[in-house]
């Protein structure tokens, strides 16, 4: 597992959020946080070669303005406080399957 910006892993996740550069008044963001490339080497401490299992990689991007933020500025809308204005996209790899005896 890997975290950007020198953050450490605590309880199987990054110790704190990456932060946000979103400016909802425009809306815009700057790509000045996070890392463009992360590498890691991980060994499953519970690996049992007699059991089937699978692994995958999950990537969480930095926060960006959501379409609601763009619409609010473009059309001069005053949206309710519970409307989500930012989004943090995720990406997942295809699973890597392990089958004993293969």
Write up what this structure looks like.
The chain has 102 residues and is mostly beta strands. The chain has one domain. The protein has one helix and eight strands; from the N terminus they run βββββαβββ. A hairpin with a 2-residue loop joins β1 and β2. The longest helix has 9 residues, at 67-75.
Give the averaged pLDDT, no decimals.
94
Number of helices: 1
Largest sheet: 2 strands, antiparallel
Strand order of the largest sheet: 1-2
> Helicity, in percent?
under 10%
Characterize the overall form.
elongated
Distance between the termini: 26 Å
Rg over CA atoms, rounded to whole Å, is 19 Å
Unreliably modeled segments: none
Instruction: Please indicate the percent range of residues in DSSP E strands (runs of 2 or more).
Output: 15-25%
Specify the structural class.
Answer: mainly beta
Order of helices and strands: EEEEEHEEE
What is the tally of beta strands?
8
Number of domains: 1
Topology, element by element:
Layout: E1 9-10, E2 13-14, E3 53-55, E4 58-60, E5 64-65, H1 67-75, E6 86-87, E7 90-92, E8 96-98
Antiparallel strand pairs: 1-2, 3-8, 4-7, 5-6
């Amino acid at each position: 597992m890997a975290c950007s910006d020198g953050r450490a892993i605590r309880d199987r996740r990054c110790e704190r959020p990456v932060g946000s550069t979103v400016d909802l008044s425009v809306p815009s963001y700057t790509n000045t946080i996070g890392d463009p490339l992360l590498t890691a080497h991980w060994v499953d401490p519970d690996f049992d070669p007699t059991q089937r299992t699978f692994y995958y990689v999950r990537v969480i991007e930095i926060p960006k303005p959501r379409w609601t933020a763009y619409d609010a500025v473009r059309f001069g809308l005053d949206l309710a406080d519970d409307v989500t204005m930012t989004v943090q996209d995720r990406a997942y790899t295809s699973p890597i399957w392990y089958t004993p005896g293969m």
